[in-house]
């Protein structure tokens, strides 16, 4: 006998409310359960609609945490930390409370688990199954067959999802949740500290509620106003810079398995050979894939900006030159299983950063390869486009310009992220991006550098921006 919707909702922690019951949310802060985080951290929840176009229907609860301002007499308000779909309370406020010490002189620091990280509590198991190996289709028939197989996974997730949440994990929905949090916090305007992909819903918030923005910090954030193709030139410049650093290291360090070799020549031989004759790799755990130059380029673009990965990458290149592509195969199969999982597709693909369809894939890849023969055609317009090929709906939050009249923003980015974060921030007049001279992703939290946090905290507190061209170097 099927379970009635109200009973099922109760089991899932959902609520089905009439429209009249929707009122301005209020927050009651209490000690965090289970001893999460530092002693002074407080927790609460907020209830938001699954579908903001039908607020009287099913709702979900989002967890919030705050580190209260150290001196209430100096308190200016709250800063909302917008993380990359998680890890939310424990991962941001609990593990790195010291990062916010100076900010807490004037603000409550509020973190939350967005719907994209809370979704696992509500969605059925079919939404969390691994995706499929993302093969590089060499013709339209192969592309459409792979897209159809991925679409079947998505359809099963949607059919099993009694909440409708799988269709409302886009950044516009996350932004509307942020507006509900602003209201619940009692803030006239929102002050945001957005990390990584969390900057995409933060930018969506600025587009939807431009008059409600007080200040925005975008740390290591892609430019969602233009999509992956619009960011490609900047990304590839960063990859070329990282590859030069890698080859220089290889020439002078015995830790490089390729020392004494012409690394660029070897790289070009590998991408040429796999481009012409794909290499089949099979894993008992993850399946089988036909590796091509697209896969090699995608992994290079992910790994090269991380100096700590240089020895591992050099070793993988040496083995591949001898016919052993196991490292590349395992990495690509793992990425495929994660990125093309129905739940993962539901959180990224509705934002429309990638163009869908075989013609778009071919056109974008050629565009990218004209910019860089050695690395063009890799991540966003390659693997991510393939991962989203089974998501056939129109984007909810497609790339589009930000509105005029926004207050100047501050961008932060290490070597790997600065080019795309600067692109985004430069679209808001009067804004500035600070570059950190290192490969750290999310520099405010991970660089542990008072230069970076000092500029960010000063801007968030006094709305004072640093000079254009400011550089922070590791101590």
UniProtKB/TrEMBL annotation:
Transmembrane segments: none
Signal sequence segment: 1-21
InterPro entries in the cross-refs: AB_hydrolase_1, AB_hydrolase_fold, Pept_S33_TAP-like_C
Keyword Glycoprotein part of the UniProt annotation: no
Entry keyword annotation includes Plastid: no
Keywords per UniProt: Signal
UniProt domain Peptidase S33 tripeptidyl aminopeptidase-like C-terminal: residue ranges: 386-472
AB hydrolase-1 domain sequence ranges: 104-269
SUPFAM superfamilies, per database record: alpha/beta-Hydrolases
Gene3D superfamilies: alpha/beta hydrolase
Name of the molecule in the record: Peptidase
Organism: Microbispora siamensis
């Amino acid at each position: 006998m099927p379970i009635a919707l109200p009973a099922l909702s109760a089991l899932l922690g959902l609520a089905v409310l009439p429209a009249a019951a929707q009122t301005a949310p209020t927050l009651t802060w209490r000690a965090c359960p289970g001893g999460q985080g530092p002693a002074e951290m407080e927790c609460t929840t907020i209830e938001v609609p699954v579908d903001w176009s039908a607020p009287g229907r099913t709702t979900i609860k989002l967890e919030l945490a705050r580190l209260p301002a150290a001196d209430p007499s100096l308190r200016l308000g709250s800063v909302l930390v917008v993380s990359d779909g998680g890890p939310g309370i424990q991962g941001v406020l609990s593990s790195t409370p010291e990062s916010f010490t100076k900010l807490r002189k004037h603000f409550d620091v509020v973190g939350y688990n967005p719907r994209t990280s809370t979704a696992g509590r509500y969605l059925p198991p079919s939404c969390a199954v691994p995706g499929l190996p993302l093969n590089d289709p060499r013709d339209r028939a192969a592309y459409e067959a792979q897209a159809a197989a991925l679409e079947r996974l998505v359809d099963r997730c949607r059919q099993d999802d009694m909440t409708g949440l799988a269709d409302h994990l886009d950044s516009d929905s996350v932004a509307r949740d942020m507006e509900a949090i602003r209201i619940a916090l009692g803030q006239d305007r929102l002050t945001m500290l957005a990390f990584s992909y969390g900057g995409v819903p933060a930018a969506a918030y600025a587009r939807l509620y431009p008059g409600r923005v007080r200040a925005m910090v975008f740390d290591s954030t892609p430019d969602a106003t233009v999509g992956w193709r619009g960011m490609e030139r900047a990304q590839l410049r960063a990859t070329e810079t990282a590859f030069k650093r890698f080859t220089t290291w290889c020439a002078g360090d015995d830790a490089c398995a390729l020392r004494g070799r012409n690394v660029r020549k070897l790289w070009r031989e590998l991408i040429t050979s796999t481009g012409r004759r794909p290499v089949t790799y099979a894993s008992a755990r993850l399946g089988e894939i036909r590796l091509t130059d697209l896969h090699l380029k995608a992994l290079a673009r992910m790994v090269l900006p991380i100096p700590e990965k240089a020895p591992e990458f050099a070793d993988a290149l040496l083995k591949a030159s001898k016919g052993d592509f196991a490292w590349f195969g395992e990495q690509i199969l793992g990425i495929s299983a994660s990125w093309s999982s129905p739940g993962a597709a539901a959180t990224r693909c509705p934002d429309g950063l990638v163009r869908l369809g075989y013609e778009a894939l071919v056109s974008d890849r050629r565009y990218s390869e004209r910019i860089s023969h050695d690395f063009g055609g890799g991540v966003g317009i390659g693997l991510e486009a393939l991962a989203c090929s089974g998501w056939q709906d129109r984007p909810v939050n497609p790339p589009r310009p930000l509105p005029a009249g926004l207050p100047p923003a501050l961008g932060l980015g290490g070597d790997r992220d600065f080019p795309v974060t600067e692109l985004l921030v430069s679209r808001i007049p009067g804004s500035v991006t600070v570059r950190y001279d290192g490969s750290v992703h999310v520099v405010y939290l991970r660089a542990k550098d008072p230069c970076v946090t000092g500029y960010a905290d000063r801007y968030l507190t006094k709305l004072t921006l640093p000079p254009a061209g400011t550089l922070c170097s590791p101590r």
